[in-house]
Amino acid sequence: MIREKDFMNWWREAKFGMFIHWGIYSALAGSWNGKSCGMLGAEWIMRNFRIPLKEYRRIADSFNPTEFDAEEYAKFAADNGMKYMVFTAKHHDGFAMYKSKASSYNIVDATPFGRDIVKELAEACKKYNVKFCVYYSQYQDWEDPNANGNDWDYNEADKDFKIYFENKLIPQVNELLTQYGDIGLIWFDTPYDMPREYCEQLVEYVKSIQPNCIINGRVGYYLGDYKQMSDNSIPVLSYPGDWETPFTINNTWGYDKNDTDWKDPKTIMEMLVKINSRGGNLLLNVGPDELGRIPERSAEIIQVIGRWLKINGESIYGTTCAPDFPYMMAWGGFTRKSNKLYMHNLKWPVYPYIRHFGGLKTKINRAYFLADGSEVEFIQNYEPARDEYNVRVKLPEKPLCELNTVVVLELDGEPEIHQLKI
Ligand code: JFZ
């Protein structure tokens, strides 16, 4: 398949990335004056409780994440098969996690910590061969009197977006694109009703500085380089364009001490397979705490996926969207790379351990386990009276990988699917 935009090839190959939501809000850990944010998102705490800027900025006065270690983050991503890292350089609260001349409301100038997190992460990612990317909240900025979002400190009627655009947004994007070397992609968010001409200017501006920097879909109006699916949402059907879904590992993006509703590794595995199968990338979030530590449980969950990827990565990286099959596959599903289909068995069949699926017309030349290369027996047939194509794969009593055992089907050509007829 010939695709445009060659500069996206690293991202198309990557398939699995690490999202990091970390800011001064992390110090509140999802609670304000003893009240919890609940499901509203701990990184939204300032707006959730309409905290006056004067009070909120006091968090910065004591923000001192002494446990933060950029190399540990980058190594964690690399060790666990996450090929790119998207870090919240500035979230909706307007606080920059990097040295900014455009606004002193930043980690270097406004905290005792005084270190440039973006700089340290960019360097560490380079060292560990992880593509470094930044999240930047372009429309909402609850610190700026002229940006969107803060209607408790500022009057909507007095706002002039142009002033914010020219004096904070553009200069800060410039800083991100000039201070830290190549930026893999810039992840914009919540464009809401941002006027189209500003979004166009923003895209043009990014590309004028770093033409190969990918821009995500949430810059608005389909001006980005790929489609950003809704948060925590997997499309029902395959979607052949470039797309990505951001997922939380519990229910919140920013750290919340009360949110221990972790998705288990099987669930994350299922998300990764379904998203890759339908042609997308999974951007999985972690929310470090006030000291800069990645919560232990989220690290453990990702490490389970990482260990699986070391053996089975071929079935994930560089895959393109698999065809839609006529029937749901409760046991898992397929990813695809050219004429290979990777069958992901997240659930194991009972005796006599036969996995059946329908709809594949293309002849299978060979089937084998990805984990050890050993041959897998199969039967492929067509039932003329019922007009059904069947494949039956003979599995052993026990899975080779507890989490997900992959069987590779080498096809005689492009996968062709027999759709249902009435
Ligand atoms: C946004 C942010 O507001 C949030 O804090 C977080 O950074 C997340 C990744 O993105 O939240 C959204 C944006 C879009 C949708 C849902 C939440 N959406 O399209 O469903």
Summarize the structure.
The chain is of the alpha/beta class and 422 residues long. It is 25% helix and 20% strand.
Report the mean per-residue pLDDT as an integer.
Answer: 97
Oligomer: single chain
Report helical residue fraction.
Answer: 25-40%
Q: How large is the radius of gyration?
A: 23 Å
Order of helices and strands: HEEEHHHHEHHEHEHEEEHEHEEEEEEE
Total number of helices: 11
What share of the residues does DSSP label as strand, in percent? 15-25%
Cofactors, ions and other ligands in the entry: 4-nitrophenyl 6-deoxy-alpha-L-galactopyranoside
Low-confidence segments, ≥5 residues, pLDDT <50?
none
**What is the β-strand count?**
17
Distance between the termini: 32 Å
Major sheet attributes? 8 strands, parallel
Shape, principal axes of CA atoms: elongated
Structural class: alpha/beta
Biggest β-sheet: strands ordered side by side in the sheet: 7-6-5-4-1-10-9-8
